[in-house]
Amino acid sequence: MEKIKVAVVGTGFIGPAHIEALRRNPNIEVATLCEVNEELAKEKAALLGIEKAMVFEDMLKDEEIKVVHICTPNFLHYSQSKAVLEAGKHVVCEKPLATKIEEAEELVALAEKTGLVNAVHFNLRYYPMVRQMKTMRESGELGDIYSIMGSYLQDWLFLQTDYNWRLEPDKSGDSRAIADIGSHLLDLTEYVTGLKITEVMADFSTVHKTRLKPLKAIETYSGKSLAPSDYEEVPINTEDHATVMLRFDNGNKGSVTVSQVNAGRKNRLNIEIAGSKANFEWCSEKPNEMWIGKRETANQHLMKDPSLFNAEAGKLIGFPGGHNEGFPDTSKQMFKEVYAAVVEGKQPEKPSYPTFADGHRELLICERIIESHKKQAWVKI
Length: 381
Ligand code: SOE
Known about the structure:
By secondary structure, this protein is α/β, with parallel strands linked by helices. It has helices at 14-23, 38-48, 56-60, 77-86, 101-114, 128-138, 169-172, 177-193, 311-314, 327-344, 356-375; strands at residues 4-9, 28-34, 52-54, 67-70, 90-93, 118-120, 145-153, 197-205, 210-214, 231-235, 241-248, 253-259, 268-275, 279-283, 289-293, 300-303, 379-380. The protein has 11 helices and 17 strands.
């Protein structure tokens, strides 16, 4: 079988996750690794068992590379996605798609013009239970949606000494917690419910007004501690915590809370969707199960089991019931869908995977949330 040759750009936390997930799809070869310089690219490629290593600009000239995965810090997503599309290659970009709305708009238009496959790694959509919730809502099992409550809590930035490029607006953009993990929650909210957010009222807090920046690099989630002489104290002006009230296009309301300083919550997205027929609750730290609340009968506890799932959701199940699937499996399942389009050579009319248009949508919501916080007022999307 001729394999599709892929390049991955960036090897922080998520780049290796993309590489592992790509390698679990039989028709894909991760042929090239790109990093900020050739030396680092070669070092990382050797560690990850990838044959070719080079800087981004050199990879673009390689005709054999058909798809590029952009796993670099947020501020590079726009320029690199644009260059990849202009080089005639398909692109999978990490969220957020860009740090400015106009950049995202330009990428959506360019992707549309080229017809190339374009996707944003909203991988949390690919937990089988998330698609099961979506298909159950589509078949009417939830009824009319009364309210939505969501949270996305982490603690990897809990300490004043926890530091990462995401804390630096020139690399991450003007928002951090909302742009970084709120993006997943907001995308998943609209994806599962089918509703559109029409207005937001946001309030941010920066718990650590200064942080101790290490004078040498450490990776996301590494949790490594350094000696006091290894730090410099820097001001922080992006949010550790955000509370956002939401209004939806069905006239009902909701709220989300996003925090990266909640001790003990490692990477916990929780959503509860109250409907006229039932209430759905799902938590990413227990992704193979879902709670279904009822008024007139006993509540239900659905476990991931292909025999109990709708056909569309069942496609995302790779192992029998009871054999838990988790975070790494989401990217494998997403790439299976994306690469079916790559095989066809073009973006489908109605992609089942999250596209640049979804990335733009999420960025628009994020920008309005930032605007609302600054104005301390409701802002329309
Ligand atoms: C850090 O908050 C992070 O790695 C995010 O950037 C990812 O999108 C999320 O899936 C896990 O946490």
